Amino acid sequence: MAYLRRKGIRPHIAQIENRTTPGLDARTTRHPHHWISQQKRKRVEEIFGWMKSYGGLRRTRFRGIARVQLHAHLLGAAYNLLRLSRLQPATG
Fold first, then answer.
1. pTM above 0.85?
2. Which residues lie below 8 Å from residue 49, measured CB to CB, with a gap of 6+?
3. pLDDT (tens digit, 9 = 90+) per residue, 1-34?
4. DSSP string covering 19-75
5. Where are the domains of the chain?
6. Do 17 and 29 contact (CB within 8 A), yes or no?
7. How far apart are CA 90 and CA 59, in angstroms?
8. Cys staple from 51: which of 28, 42, 57, 72, with CB 3.0 to 4.6 Å?
């Protein structure tokens, strides 16, 4: 964490109550950017959770980086199609 602070990068890690996390203090959590970052993080984690539970990434059947990466890209495209299907039609 000290390396990140010297570089001017704020660590945006989750703050868990009743647990001390080295490097995560009021210097980071007092800014509204930290709260926004945590909201965005939740949205990204939901996508990976969907890929693991419905897409089969938890235990992939493919071997090799290229094949697993292609599988992840296809799942990302499928998730985007799912999101598109759930969009509300524009009125007006």
1. no
2. none
3. 678 778 877 666 776 677 676 666 666 667 777 7
4. ---TT-SHHHHTSHHHHHHHHHHHHHHHHHHHHHHTSS-TT-S--SHHHHHHHHHHH
5. 2-85
6. no
7. 39
8. 57
